[in-house]
Known about the structure:
The complex is a heterodimer.
Chain A: H1 3-56, H2 59-62, H3 77-85, H4 88-119, H5 125-137, H6 144-153, H7 161-164, H8 171-182, H9 186-194, H10 199-228, H11 231-236, H12 245-255, H13 261-293
Chain B: H1 3-23, E1 26-27, E2 35-36, H2 40-47, H3 51-82, H4 86-97, H5 104-114, H6 121-128, H7 143-167, H8 172-180, H9 185-196, H10 198-213, H11 217-223, H12 234-243, H13 248-276
Antiparallel strand pairs in B: 1-2
Helix pairs in contact in B: 2-13, 3-7, 3-10, 5-11, 7-10, 7-11, 8-9, 10-13, 12-13
Amino acid sequence: MSVSDALARGTTRRTRAHERRRGTGASLGRIVLSVFLVLAGVVMLVPVVWVVLQSFEVPADQSSVAPIWFPSHLTLGSYRTLFSTTPFGLNILSSVAVTVAVVLGSAVVSILAAYAFARIEFRGREALFIMFLAALTLPTQVAAVPEFVVVKNLHLLNSRLSLVIPALVQVIAIFLLRQHIRTIPTELDDAARIDGAGHLGILRHIIIPLSWPAISAVMVITGQYIWNDFFWPNLFINSTNRMTAPLALYNLESVSGGGPVGAIFAGLTVLCVPCVIVFIFLQRRLMEGIGYRGVSR
Amino acid sequence: MLSPALILYVAFIGIPLVGVILISFVQWDLISPPHFVGLSNYRSVAHDTQLGQTLSNTFLFDIMTTAIHVLLGLGLAIAVTTVRSKVVRYWARTAILTPFLMSAGVVALMWSYILADGTGPLNYYLTKLGLHPPNWLASSTWSLPSLVLIDVWATVGLTFLIFLVGLQSVPVDLLEAASIDGAGAWTRFRRITLPMLSPATFIASTTAFIGAFEIFTWPLIDTAGGPGIATQTVLLYVYRAAFQNYQFGYSAVVSLINVAILISFVVVMGLIARRWVHYERV
């Protein structure tokens, strides 16, 4: 009988009693944990629920200081005010157009660049790549002033193109796609090359089909970033019709001095609810994408 | 193939970054042509009465935010990983991540109504509880912590997600082995989970710190940097110097101070990482 066996026997009874105690302790702990998480979720969502409810309330309920969680009258009046008295429809179109253009455009730019960095040998490739990476450590906002000068000199100020063209280079997307392309065996490229494919052929028939999960994850995070951005639209756009939707709401609030509260709540709801729905459908893709992105918020 | 990316990079990242340095040597209101003033913009830093307070606001905000982000993000990620019920897990994960998917502008507007004194729901309930809540966004004591609250609510999802991914790399058999050897929950956490999470902690704290340093939308919309300049942050100051006071040269100097701080932070974090971050695979 070895020492450890003896020890094991000696402790058997104690361990059992200990485990029993831990058993009830663990289930109590589990209940506390579940309650904590349910409450944490409620805390995160209550502000959103409050805004959504407010947007459907009649003006009398909206101006009540005590929050009304079960309104007796529901109305679309705030939405009617929002869409009839402000160009919010156009603002949503602006947001959609800018987001779609950047998502598609930056995907093309990033795939081409990522392929070049991963597969084409040329002088200075590593140095260039490091130069791209360096941009990742600094948030782009630090160069806001000269960026403004560049955009002004390109005569893009107050044009929606000012939100599209500079955003077409998404360094993080290039980096992530390059990492992905490097995991694809080069033998596949060689096979395609023997069949007469050039770089574009290899991209089309091999790299893009095999990178589709990474490409779509990158597109989702780019879309989320552009759709939600406030900094650049606030800097570049000043005519109300061309503003993106979040900026237009801020403008409505600050210009009118907090006037049409209902309309602003309606606008906030219009911008929140799609997020929640899209998130429920794209949860996995988004989590992958955001998990990758890590570096920039 | 690289040319589109390269041209865009040079025009919209390269030139602006170099441009900050060039603009810092000129006096320029963007209308009349710039004229060279040498180091005079740099000398103005010494007479700037707002810069010190602005920097300390930003650091204070950043340290509070980063600390809460890491603790709360880690706590929530561990709770979500540990909980058995799939429904609770899905609920918590969805709820924690939802605010992170909203526009900063939307978040800021929402909270300006929630925290409003007299009409906002938060103070309504606090008053009901018999408390005397401050006017959060207009109080010189509470406005900065209020922005911390908004920031944590809006972006803790990212930190949470980083830890969630990190926790998946902690091997279950190692934890089980330790458990058989008699290690309690705290010892297992302290000796296994925490060291295995050091890369995630590193990424989460670096991300939170850099993100929080560039905080802009909450002070712009919720407090207008006030009361006074109690919540004026570096990026808001740069924005005001340039686009409200038309001192583009001076704003570039402040931008460079910002860049210098971020670069030193990254360097320090790199040194810390070399000492404390474990990348062993088991």
